[in-house]
Specification:
This protein has one domain. The longest helix has 27 residues. The N and C termini lie far apart (about 60 Å). It has about 130 residues and is mostly helical. α4 runs antiparallel to α5.
């Protein structure tokens, strides 16, 4: 049987990687510092998770029930669907913040995405407690 990949060289398979190269590969890419808005949002978010106000596996814990109850069924469905996705981002942010003390591109992207979701959905009112 002919080789499927003509660029594959079996002699280089499983060669040792120099420790300094491995350390460089394992280091997270550092992002720019948090903006004031991002830092305030992140502090509030982490505080609410640690206090148990936001339950990481209960999307309804993100909702401001007084505003949510006034929405029409179509808007509620949109909020319900998005709150599940937003809670997934929050779980990722909280998990990554436990590992990295400084902003990384992954955490910054998640925070910016979460803020964008919140702004987009709250055009009709203050639906979320974050």
């Amino acid at each position: 049987m002919a080789d499927l990949n003509p660029l594959y060289d079996p002699k280089t398979d499983n060669l040792a990687i120099a420790p300094e190269v491995q350390a460089m590969l394992n280091a997270p890419l550092k992002a720019d510092a948090w903006t004031d808005e991002e830092q305030a949002f992140l502090n509030d978010l982490v505080a609410k998770v640690e206090a148990g106000t936001i339950k990481l596996y209960s999307p309804s814990s993100l909702l401001n029930q007084a505003v949510y109850e006034k929405l029409d069924p179509m808007a509620r469905g949109k909020v319900d669907q998005n709150s599940v996705n937003m809670l997934g981002k929050i779980r990722d942010i909280v998990g990554l913040m436990k590992v990295y003390n400084e902003p990384t591109y992954q955490i910054k992207n998640l925070v910016e995405s979460l803020l964008a979701d919140k702004r987009r959905l709250e055009e009709v009112g203050d639906i979320f407690i974050i």
